[in-house]
Amino acid sequence: QPRVFSGVQPTGNLHLGNYLGAVSRWVPLQDQMPTIFCVVDSHAITAGFPDPVELSEATREVTAAYMAAGIDPTKSIIFNQSQVREHAELAWIFNCVARMGWLSRMTQFKEKAGKNKENASVGLFAYPNLMAADILAYRATHVPVGDDQKQHLELTRDIAAKFNNDFGERIKELGIGVPNPTPSPELPEQLYFPLTEPMIAGPATRIMSLRDGTKKMSKSDPSDLSRINLTDDSDTIAKKIRKAKTDPDALPSAVEGLADRPEADNLVGIYAALGGLSKEDVLKDFGGQQFSAFKPALSELAVAKLSPMTDEMRRLMDDKVQIDSVLKDGAEKASAIAEPVLKDVRRIIGFLDVR
Ligand code: TYM
């Protein structure tokens, strides 16, 4: 049975990369299959505990951003991760499924831990296991994310495959698996966990910094000019686009001409994603034009798309009781799905259930 799961960390402002690479792409999925969107606060403490008041506030802000972007709490489950205990419980079990070697290869850990790995938290190292637990506690089949999460989703599949294999006989005996949709010699006929499909597509899977087309747009970049935040007002958006780094040439008339022009490629990709177009479409309209003509058009489109959302976010943030009640309702619905999954997992493993 198909099901979507995805999430964003409540660490600071959401930016255009989070919106175009992830949240905006979740909206149409709500009408296609069951969808669960999580504010992953347990992940937000892996790189150091944020200020407690700011963490709670950021959790509400991300919730408001989801709703302002069009995630509808009557269609989707929206909740914060720490409220559903099953995530932590399944993550522990996955700590014992995943191998040190698998996690040691995670590029995001290497980037985030920096030079001093000895000083990184154990939580930062085990981060991908918690992410696998988020997804598999709901036996979710589809995960829409940006390109930077690809390796974590491969690990999620590896964890699911190892669990299915290690407990293959037991799962069959208990009769609680689902038939393997793509039979192969490496996997048993009955799977308990699905092999999740990453959904990474479109012109905005990797939005780059506005100051450096070779670096990802990120919350942690010290320069605020490098990103467009969903809380930026129209003047700030226009200023950041005006100051965005570019090369001196005109825009090419075909996508091949964007190769080796990372800044141009990025701005064209942003225009395409905001306008619901392909890069080809954008170059049909703007090919041959200078950035002095393209940038104002991009600003206008960005402001037209983002400012109603920013206004709606502000409006939602005025009623915190309402946001908290959406999260409470979501947590109850999420628990109702995850609890029986963990009950199964405990049985599969052989944890004695005496209650
Ligand atoms: P996070 O909070 O870093 O980012 C949230 C989402 O935004 C995408 N993203 C981008 N997309 C395009 N261009 C960019 N520059 C850019 N920057 C970020 C990310 O790919 C992501 O989809 N580990 C995850 C959160 C998570 C999760 C999960 C996601 C925890 N559990 C389970 C899916 C399923 C993260 O840190 O995302």
From TrEMBL:
Q: Establish whether keyword Cell membrane is in the entry.
A: no
Q: Which SUPFAM superfamilies match?
A: Nucleotidylyl transferase
Q: Family membership, please give it.
A: Belongs to the class-I aminoacyl-tRNA synthetase family.
Where does this protein hold ATP? Q9, P10, T11, G17, N18, G146, D147, D148, I207, K216, M217, S218, K219, S220
Cellular location of this protein?
Cytoplasm
Name recorded for this polypeptide: Tryptophan--tRNA ligase
Give the main location: cytoplasm
Q: What PANTHER family does its record include? A: TRYPTOPHAN--TRNA LIGASE, MITOCHONDRIAL
Q: What is its EC number?
A: 6.1.1.2
Binding-site residues, L-tryptophan:
D134
Residue ranges for motif 'KMSKS' region? 216-220
Q: What does this protein do?
A: Catalyzes the attachment of tryptophan to tRNA(Trp).
Organism from which the protein derives: Roseibium album
Q: Any keyword Cytoplasm?
A: yes
Q: Which NCBIfam families match?
A: trpS
What's in the keyword line of the UniProt record? Aminoacyl-tRNA synthetase, ATP-binding, Cytoplasm, Ligase, Nucleotide-binding, Protein biosynthesis
Q: Quaternary state and partners of this protein?
A: Homodimer.
**Which EC class, in a word?**
ligase
